[in-house]
Structure formats: structure tokens, C-alpha cells
Amino acid sequence: MNRKITEEYDGFEFKYPQILALTKRQLEDQLWFSSEYDVKLDELEFRFDLSDNEKHFVLKTLPLFIRYEVYVGNFWVDVYAKHFKAPECQELASVINMVERAIHARFYRQISEVLRLDTDDHYTDWKNHEELRERDKYLSKWLKEGEPDQQMLAYSLIEGVGLFSNFLGFRSFQLNGRNKLVVTSKGTIQSSSDEDLHSEALTTSLLIKWQEIGFTFEGSELHQWFVDLVKYFVERENIIVRGSMLTDELNGVTIQDMQDYIKHRCNVVLERLGCQPLYNVKSKVAEQFDNAVTGYKLTDFFTKGVGSEYTSGWSEQSFVDCIMKGD
Fold first, then answer.
1. In angstroms, rounded to a whole number, what is the distance separating the alpha carbons of residues 182 and 125?
2. Does residue 298 register a pLDDT over 80?
3. pLDDT digits (tens, 9 = 90+) for 10-41
4. H or E stretch including 253?
5. ∠ at Cα 286 (281, 290), nearest 5°?
6. Which of 96, 160, 191, 305 has its CB 3.0 to 4.6 Å from that of 38, i.e. a possible disulfide?
7. First vs last Cα of the chain: how many Å apart?
8. Are 69 and 105 in contact (CB under 8 A)?
9. Which CATH superfamily is domain 17-325 in?
10. Is 249 helix (H, G, I), strand (E, B) or coil?
11. What is d(CA 148, CA 153) in angstroms, rounded to the nearest whole number?
């Protein structure tokens, strides 16, 4: 087969096992559903057991999430699938769009519903903050502008870096001896695992394309453009981190920890593209959090309200009734 990953194709023969492997990981290794996470079990802690700093972080962060998922879902259908036309890529785009919209967005909506913030005033609160308006412009810009490779690279950062300081903030409720917001924290870890995979899907697709056309990325004008974009992205994310907290730390995770982690995540994306890391940074939280990110889905049989055995549609009594009836 001489066809390329970006070319129209009327057949169905698969050529790219790397892409199929990513779809398999999403569907078979780490698929989860928002209904498995009963966020209502965190409600009392949300309302009565959080410090002012913790409440500020949650309320400042949540409005970003659903809007982010809508943008990213649109990207996979309207940008990625229109450029990478191989059947494996079409399948991958459909699966990731479903995960972003029907799983992640629904999970974040659950949190807003529990907090009784399921209103447009809440979801559009980002408009009141300059740093969040700038992030929104970035998301929108690369849906509509730039060459395809630039769009893919920009969204590899969005998927692989964009919300990771926020994910780390939610993870902090479970660090350093704390045990708050158990269900919410575990749900955001599942979401971060998916986003990491989606970023890897973009870098993998680009590497296949570049190999097919004989393009060397590192040292090219496109590479320099991307390095400049990474620096801008880090600058903007650092501003967002500072605005998400009232003090210089959240549950033992400092602003500096979060900013170092952002740089670490940028290095991850660059290394996946076959490039040298841009930042000489040692993130104190990277190993601990990245192990959770890349751990895929493990059913939690011990935390109440988490895991498919609780909410997958099979109750113990229904199972007993089925057996007794002989069905």
C-alpha cells in the first residue's frame, strides 16, 4: 500500500498499527464512565470541609473544564479527522470525541450539579478573568487558523499540558496525608490519563506523517515555531496557576511545584516528537502524579462511589432476582 496517512482512501485495509493500539488503549485499557463516579459522596466536603483556598481553587477551575472538552471534541472531528484520513485515524477521532464529550464533560457537569452551580453564569465565569479569556482565545484560534501541522502541535499541548496543573491541584486533596474529595480526585486522574493518551495520539500521527514525506522536525522552522509556542503556553499557564489559588500552596503543593510540572509536561510532548527537552527542570511531583496518569483504569473496589461494580447497571438484588427467575 502506497497511500499516506493524510490521503483519501476508499478501502478499509489497516496500515497503521500504532494508531489502532492507541484506540485499543482508550477503549479496552482505560475506558470509564462518568456514572461510575458518584460525586455526591463528596458533597458534604465540598460544602463544609474545604478551606477558603481550596474552595477558591475548585470554583475557579470548574468553569474551564466543560468548555475545554467542547473545544477539544470539536478539534478531533473538525480538524484532526479532516487531515488524517486513514480509516484508523477516523476511528480514533470518533472514539476520542466521544470520550471528551460523553465522559469527561458529563463528569465535570456532575461536580457542578452537586455544588448547585449548573448554570450558565457559572459556566461562563471564565469571561470575567483576563487570563482565562486568553486561554479561550488560544483554544479557539487553533481550531480555525494555522497550517494542519501547527494545529496538531498546538493541540498536543492543549491535550498533554493544558489542564494538568488543574489535575494536579485536584490530586493534592489526596496527597500528604489528606483524604478529601476522594471521588472527584479519582475522576480527574482518569481524565488526565485520557488527555495524556490523546496528546500521544497527536504526536504519533505527526511522526507517521513526517516519516512518510521525509520531513525532519527537530531543527526545522516548524520546530522553532513550536518552541516559541511552548514558551508562550508555559507563560500563560503560569498566570492561570497563580490565579487559581489564594495562597502560594494548595494542600502542600506549591505554585512553584505546579509551574515546574507544566514545564515537565511540555518536555514530555517534545520528547514524544523526538526532540530534546526544552526545560532543565526537576519536578518534585512529576513521578508521583505521572504514575497515576499512565496507570490506566484500575477498578477501585475499596472506595465507596468509585468503580464499575457499584454503578454499571447491575445491582446485587437484580442479579439475585434474575437467578431466582431462571432468566
1. 26
2. no
3. 878 899 999 999 999 999 999 999 999 999 99
4. strand 253-254
5. 140
6. 305
7. 50
8. yes
9. Ribonucleotide Reductase, subunit A (1.10.620.20)
10. strand
11. 9
Pairing of strands 249-250, 253-254: antiparallel
Asked whether the beta carbons of 33 and 103 are under 8 A apart, the reply is yes
Percent of the chain scored above 90 by pLDDT?
61
Can you tell me the mean pLDDT for 215-240? 94
Query: DSSP letter at 103?
Result: I
Do 7 and 90 meet the contact criterion of CB atoms below 8 Å apart? no
What residue spans define the domains of the chain?
Answer: 17-325
Other residues' Cβ atoms within 10 Å of the Cβ of residue 140: 12
Min mean pLDDT across 13-22, 81-90, 171-180 is at 171-180
Burial class (CB in 10 A: 0-12, 13-18, 19+), 31: middle
pLDDT for 21 equals 97
Q: Which grid coordinates are listed for 283?
A: 519536578
Instruction: Say how many CA atoms lie within 13 Å of 75 toward its Cβ.
Output: 29
| CA separation for the pair 267, 262 (Å, rounded) | 9
For residue 175, what is its C-alpha cell? Answer: 496527597
Cα separations in angstroms, 275 against 94, 196, 224, 269, 319: 29, 18, 11, 9, 53
